[in-house]
Amino acid sequence: MSPLVDEELSDYTADMMDNTFPDGLGISDGRFKLVIPENAKLFPPNSSLTAIILSSPKTIRFLKKKTRGRPCYIIPGIVGNHEITLSSILNVPLICSNETCKDIMFSESRQREFLAQSEAIIAPVAFTKKEEIT
């Protein structure tokens, strides 16, 4: 999901998803879809992606169709009412930290580390921020 994407960023993302898997297989056409909520252009650039999704009926229908009967989860950066609402609409669980492990879940790289330890299937990343390397 992305609020707004230009063609250059879309091409970069597709290339990254196709060329960064360790086995070299990548994600072929049809397995990767960049979804942009139809009402994203109505929101300011710093708006919550979840709020944008909840305001976009076509995107909600698309997500319901794609998640129905499949193992999936939502990993929010911050859990608020919008995230809980989206989770209940899609009938998809939220994976989020409790007070004791809040520090572990704060950065994206630490979230990926947590998912890797739980043996969840995760997409590869092209880089890790220098300040997040432990």
What would you note in describing this structure?
Mean pLDDT is 75; it is low at 130-134. The protein contains 5 helices and no strands. Helices cover 37% and strands 0% of the residues. The chain is an all-alpha fold and 134 residues long. The two termini are 28 Å apart. The protein has helices at residues 7-19, 49-54, 57-67, 81-90, 108-117. The longest helix is centred in the N-terminal third of the chain and has 13 residues, at 7-19. The radius of gyration is 16 Å and the shape is globular.
Characteristic terms for this protein:
134 residues, mainly alpha, 5 helices, 0% strand, globular, disordered C terminus
Based on DSSP secondary structure assignment, what is the total number of beta strands? 0
Shape: globular
- SS element count, helices: 5
Rounded Rg: 16 Å
* Low-confidence residue ranges: 130-134
Residues in helices, as a percent range: 25-40%
Largest sheet descriptor = none
- SSE topology string: HHHHH
**Chain-averaged pLDDT:** 75
SS class: mainly alpha
Distance between the termini: 28 Å
Tell me the fraction of residues in β-strands, as a range. Answer: under 5%
